[in-house]
């Protein structure tokens, strides 16, 4: 029986899961409230002046309802706040709080250490090549026909 080779999406998903699991376990061990992957991504997607839930949903590639649920949990933890949008009376902006900034900085520092562990395990050249490959421009997703 031959073993099937995992496709690239599965390999990338597995690598992301490894990073997410390491971050969650490390933050929990440090006494921080664990966040979901979607909640963690929100911090990287927020504009300094604030971002609407609709825009966060677009950036995350999820529904507004899903984005709202992730934001609601972070509001309850005091990591984000809602403020009026000066450009629209209908919208509210989501912004990071002082506590949210502290937690986000700690998570970023933890990710730096985790990346160092990964480099130790797979080799510095491979870790550097992986980061380089993932940051190269890919262009628009292609539409192809299977052979």
TrEMBL record:
It comes from the Bacteria. It holds the Pfam family MarR_2. SUPFAM superfamilies: Winged helix' DNA-binding domain. InterPro entries: HTH_MarR-typ, MarR/SlyA-like, WH-like_DNA-bd_sf, WH_DNA-bd_sf. Residues 28-127 form the HTH marR-type domain. PANTHER family: MARR-FAMILY TRANSCRIPTIONAL REGULATOR, TRANSCRIPTIONAL REGULATOR, MARR FAMILY. This is HTH marR-type domain-containing protein.
